[in-house]
Design goal:
This protein is mainly α and 432 residues long. It is built from 23 helices and no strands.
């Protein structure tokens, strides 16, 4: 989660305000018959509640909303009339400046006051974006869906389109790629038909659709959208250019243009490095490692995957570390170190299961099967392919399922199980 400096709200006497809120908090707690520890719940501490009640600290809106829920009241009642409401401008500034948590607090506070449906729709859309940026897709989807309904009812199609974008983003974050794709395509069609939107909205839609197709394993469709983005390339800032090149590198890799993937990947990595985007740098390094591996350069691939591992460990991102360990296992297979690859793939599988990363799990099990094949353990490899196919059938993407079924069928055919191999090949063809 992004950290930032909280901008103070416009109050005359912050100490007096803290004492006033603390007094209301204590009164509400006593009326509810709760101890300070019970009010704190699992999110806060008794010491923090005590400090609040004594006016020693001032709570954030997130804390106020939590305590209000605990007490069966609203945050506005705890704040009282002495506190000026957040202004709409202040909420929008937080959103534009990337202070997502503060933006969500501000929009939440504004939504507690009476507002007409048009104003409420704007506030919901703003909060939906804040939640989406914080990788909290469930409330983002709920807010965005409500905003779409209100804007549509008010005959404001351009505003409804932007709210739909955030609804699609929230669906994408929940791996509902079919729904996200449908929503994004619908908006793109409206824009192409002349819907008046902000200047770079068309560009954002194309990049989002390319990411969806990449995530869903359709590199040719992703490339199609990315080729359209070329026409807007001079408008891209460094961060979005890096994202564009990252997606382009992936699409090139998946369509077999490894040299193109390496060129685009290196450019993407350089731009992410310049902007200090640590997570994106690590993801780009891992993808580049796979491209260098596909090009036969295991040494460079190993260097890149080692850098990616260090970054993700620093970020405590075990979910993505599963992908990195899978890449490392693939490098070991290419180097003829099947036993080491087997152990590394088991690490990747364990990390994927701990973090419920189904995409990483599927890839790691496939790599595990390949290591077993290299060790001559055919029956174990067949069982691993069966597990991998079961995971990918449930979570996708189709392209990965085709690859799993093809590898599994080849192993079955080599083991003399031709009928089963034939059935899998038929299934692989039907996934196209």
């Amino acid at each position: 989660m992004r950290t930032s400096t909280r901008r103070p709200r416009p109050v005359t006497d912050d100490g007096a305000l803290a004492k006033s809120i603390g007094s209301r908090l204590k009164s509400g707690r006593l009326r509810a018959g709760l101890t300070q520890q019970q009010l704190a719940g699992e999110r806060y501490t008794k010491a923090y509640v005590s400090a609040l009640e004594n006016g020693l600290v001032r709570p954030s809106m997130a804390a106020l909303n939590f305590f209000a829920t605990q007490l069966g009241t609203s945050a506005s009642r705890l704040i009282g009339d002495e506190t000026p409401a957040w202004s709409r401008l202040e909420a929008d500034v937080h959103l534009a400046a990337g202070r997502w948590a503060e933006a969500v607090d501000a929009f939440t506070n504004l939504l507690e006051a009476p507002a007409d449906s048009a104003a409420r729709a704007e506030l919901l859309r703003g909060r939906a974006e804040g939640y989406a940026r914080l990788d909290d897709p469930l409330p983002a989807a709920a807010d965005a869906a409500q905003a779409v309904r209100l804007f549509t009812a008010a005959s404001r199609p351009a505003d409804a389109a932007l709210a739909t974008y955030w609804l699609a983003y929230a669906q994408y974050k929940q791996d509902n790629t079919a729904e996200a794709r449908s929503l994004m395509r619908g908006v793109l069609e409206q824009v192409r038909n002349g819907l008046g939107v902000e200047p770079d909205f068309n560009l954002r839609l194309l990049l989002a659709l390319a990411s969806i197709e990449s995530h869903d394993g359709d590199p040719n469709r992703a490339l199609g959208y990315l080729q359209e983005v070329r026409a807007f390339a001079d408008r891209l800032d460094d961060r979005r250019r890096a994202t564009y090149l990252y997606d382009l590198a992936w699409a090139y890799h998946e369509t077999g243009d490894i040299e193109g993937a390496i060129r685009a990947g290196l450019q993407s990595l350089a731009l992410y490095r310049a902007s200090g985007a640590e997570f994106e740098m690590a993801a780009a390094e891992n993808n580049l490692a796979r491209s260098f591996l596909a090009n036969g350069n295991t040494v460079r691939a190993g260097e890149l995957v080692a850098m990616a591992r260090v970054r993700f460990e620093r970020l405590h991102d075990e979910a993505y570390l599963a992908h990195v360990e899978d890449t490392a296992a693939q490098i070991l297979i290419a180097e003829g170190k099947a036993t080491e690859a087997l152990g590394k793939s088991q690490e990747a599988i364990a990390a994927a299961r701990r973090t419920d990363n189904q995409r990483a799990l599927a890839g790691a099990v496939i790599t595990h099967a390949r290591a077993l094949v290299a060790l001559g353990r055919t029956q174990d490899a067949l069982a691993a392919y069966e597990e991998a196919a079961a995971v990918v059938r449930e979570t996708g993407p189709r392209a990965l399922l085709r690859d799993v079924l093809a590898q599994w069928a080849d192993l079955l055919a080599g083991n003399g199980q031709h009928q089963q191999a034939y059935e899998l090949q038929k299934e692989a063809l039907s996934t196209g």
